[in-house]
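Each record in this resource describes a single protein on a pair of labelled lines. The shape at a given residue is found from the number at the same position. The record below illustrates this layout:

***
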Amino acid sequence: MFTPTYDQKWLQQKIAEGDDGFINAGGIRTELSGNQMTEPLTSLHAQRKAFAKFVEWKRRKKQMSQPELAEKIHVEVDEIIEIEDESFVSVEPSTIYALAQEFEIPAKTLMAVAGLTQQDNKKIREASIRFAANSGNTTPLQPEEDDLLETFVNTLISMR
């Protein structure tokens, strides 16, 4: 996980400037508390999860692998992996635009779901939270998924 470091003088200046003690860096709106950075707002976590699941499910619905999607939208496969497993710090706007084109969703809306815009759209936020809360996969693994999992587990076990 990325842990940012901040110049104390800069932080104090940002706090003094107002904005209700919030700063925005890389699309992540974060609250300042004294000299400490606190966790991003909970709804942002839900939006990031919704964005991740949206990308994964749309890719799967199109019956594409992660490498196929990456090739089609001209990004590195590790970027797709980071998006889908929610480990991204921020996503390049060009990647959001390419995903929006591929999945036929307005780019501005997808950027909001990914948490990359300043706009506070209550409808998008609520829809993202609802989607994130209900997107946990409870279906059994497909045979191919089970085979891939077992191969991965066996590789990990062999590295003892």
